[in-house]
Amino acid sequence: METTNQNWQMVSEIELVYKSKVKASERLQIKSSKDAYQLLKSSWDQGKIEYFEQFKILFLNNSLKVLGLYEMSSGGITGTTVDLRMIFSAALKANATSIMIAHNHPSGNKRPSEADKYTTTKIRQAGELLDIKLMDHLIITSESYYSFIDDGAL
């Protein structure tokens, strides 16, 4: 019996914790792509927006109030890594019912590439399995943005 009690100490403990710094009543609500763009643009380091790609995620509740913002990756001039498992592990941890994703194009071109379209489809499909809706994908530049939902591409 003693060996059984010792075996549990050889297993890693997993703890799921979401710590909000904002009261529920004070959370920002996203009502449009413009709201999301303004929030995301203010979070971007302006010295990096035209330098290399970054990928960020807004986690939202049922009322489309922001639960959190997560910078998932930073990459090179023409791309960054997007890992579905990381997106949805963070979304589940935050108890999000929907997400908005965003990345910047250092070139200033706000049109989505084929890779952007493919990634958006993969994220939308994965979210459907988990009942986490992809609300939009924004491509951010220093001067403007592109919204997949506003353009009818999502």
What attributes characterize this protein structure?
alpha+beta, Cytidine Deaminase, domain 2, 4 helices, 5 strands, 22% strand, globular
Could you describe the 3D structure shown?
With 154 residues, the chain is of the alpha+beta class. The chain has one domain: Cytidine Deaminase, domain 2, CATH 3.40.140.10. The protein contains four helices and five strands; from the N terminus they run H-H-E-E-H-E-H-E-E. The chain has helices at 2-7, 33-43, 84-93, 114-130, and strands at residues 54-60, 66-74, 98-104, 133-140, 145-147. It has a five-stranded mixed β-sheet, sandwiched between helices.
Strand order of the largest sheet: 2-1-3-4-5
In the CATH hierarchy, what is the superfamily? Cytidine Deaminase, domain 2
Q: Give the fraction of residues assigned to helices.
A: 25-40%
Tell me the fraction of residues in β-strands, as a range.
15-25%
Tell me, rounded to a whole number, the average pLDDT.
91
Instruction: Give me the Rg, rounded.
Output: 18 Å
Instruction: Please tally the β strands and state the result.
Output: 5
Query: What is the structural class?
Result: alpha+beta
Instruction: Kindly identify the CATH topology.
Output: Cytidine Deaminase, domain 2
The number of domains: 1
The run of helices and strands is: HHEEHEHEE
Number of helices: 4
End-to-end separation in angstroms reads 57 Å
**What does the largest sheet look like?**
5 strands, mixed
Describe the global form. globular
Poorly predicted ranges = none
